[in-house]
Amino acid sequence: MLLAASIVCSAAAAEPKRVLLLLSFGRDFRPWNEYATQLRSELNKQSAWPLDIIEYSLVSARSGDGSSEGAFVEYLRAVFGPNPPDLIIGIGAPAGGFVQQHREQLFKSTPLLITAIEERRVEHSKLTENDTVVAVHHDFRVLFENILRVLPDTKNIVAVNGVSPNERFWKEEIARETEPLQSRVTITWSDDLPFEDVLKHAAKLPPNSAIFLFQMQLDAAGVVHEGDAALRRLYAVANAPIFSTDEAFFGRELVGGPMHSVAVNNERAAGVAVRLLGGERAGDIKLPPSNFAPPKFDWRELQRWHISESRLPPDSEILFRPPTVWEQYRWQSLGVLAALLAQLLLISWLVYEHRRRSLAEVQSRSAMAQLAHLNRLETAGQLSASIAHEINQPITGIALKSSAALRWLAVEKPDVEKIRSILTDIVAAAQRTGDIVSGVRALFKKDSNLKAPLNLNKKIDTVLALLRLDLQKGGIQVETTLEDELPAVTGDPVQIQQVILNLIVNAAEAMQAVQPRALRIQSKSTAGTIRVTIEDTGPGINESDRTRIFDPLFTTKAGGMGMGLSICRSIIENHGGKIWAEPGAIRGTVFQFELPVVERLSSQETLAA
Ligand code: ADP
User: Which residue of 384, 519, 541 sits with most ligand 1 atoms within 8 Å of its CB, as the best mutation to test the pocket?
Assistant: First the structure.
């Protein structure tokens, strides 16, 4: 039972509503045809019921000859028979006037909505309680002022208008409302001319003219102009910009300005129509007429007539502006951009890669050059250092002892034993010199370095003995802390001695200008290595220099070669050890090197060096 009731209800809700749509003049007359077309779709959008829209045109409105109207009324009554429409909509003043005129016969109990009409064309006194109006309000002064605003040099406005009763009515109104502007601009009318002559006239207007087209449905020659034919033909020949009242005409020929909006008015009209179909009493719905919508301008006409956008009212909308290249080809542009970007990235990467390679090449070349240079200088430095520090000593000894031997030989009874002893010393010194030279040679012969177990304490002692006099002269206090029973390391005794010598000479040179001058030398065995520490109280090494002192050719001394430390490092590293420098606890520098232990010898005497 409940189910049956709900089926009945939905059937009633779905029942179509019949709407009689009456057009003025005919199906294709602007602006009403625009209103009718859009109103239909707006009605279907807003209506809850399916709509059966039946459309007729009031052809008699063209001429104003109302003699046939009675027959038309009869025809409509016959069409609908005993089932009158649910709603009558009159579009435009002629259609609205017609229904009002024949309201008694035209389904007087059916609600009537008159729309697309100017409020002045409504016969308010004849409105019944079943009638309502959605009207607009024309303000011709605003329209003409718009022309003078965007084209301030305008001297002459030609008003184009037809001769049907509706058009004649408006001619009077336009003239009356624009009267106050006559001091600024001349307004002329073309309604006494057939439209063909209007066209000829419009083609030869003097400079600073504008055309205001109100309507051209019926011209002075009695010719009817459907749709927007009149406007299109006028636009084709006119040598002045054209303005009008309604957005129904806007879209190519008009410059633009404030105009009635078809969409806005239809939305209002459809809303009222739906309320009427829903049963609301028409007489209770009273809407004020709507004014012009915010101004709209056609960009193409603005260009054509050189109208600057700065002249337009601030709330204006500019339509038909051609899309920018970006808007038009957005995806293509994005594609090209992406391709360019990818190409750019690729090029950057290639350039980067190329630079990296060249840099690496330059670096490796410079390293090679440095190495070659180093080899030469290393040899020279090594030799000169050895000659200076080691060979010099025994040679001086040989010279001194030879002089002594000669002196002993010069006496009457030479002391043969004494001379023998001196000569033995000379032979030992010469032997030592030979050893040094072969050691230096061995240093530069690849893989031929002598590697023997050696005691670092002994080497330190030897170097200190060699330098004793120099250190004393330099006022340097020497303190040694050498670990007893130090395990042996393997290496070339001459080279290792060279390292110790270099470090001590450097320390002594560093302390030349400071007080106190203390040199501390320590040897210590740690897990698997022997560490030798040579500490001075000199000025220390700049933080920035500390990483460079082992580089070949780095020197801060006027006559320095910058090779000592680099040779030390290559010797120590060649022996599987490492060498480094640190700042002293209070002042000075601590140089340390470590060499790997090979074996613990029972007696230091058994060591090779
Ligand atoms: P150079 O022959 O120039 O002295 P080295 O390789 O022996 O060459 O030393 C390089 C640089 O390291 C020196 O010029 C000096 O600036 C710094 N240097 C070496 N040893 C010491 C030290 N004990 N105290 C301060 N600076 C040092």
Answer: 541
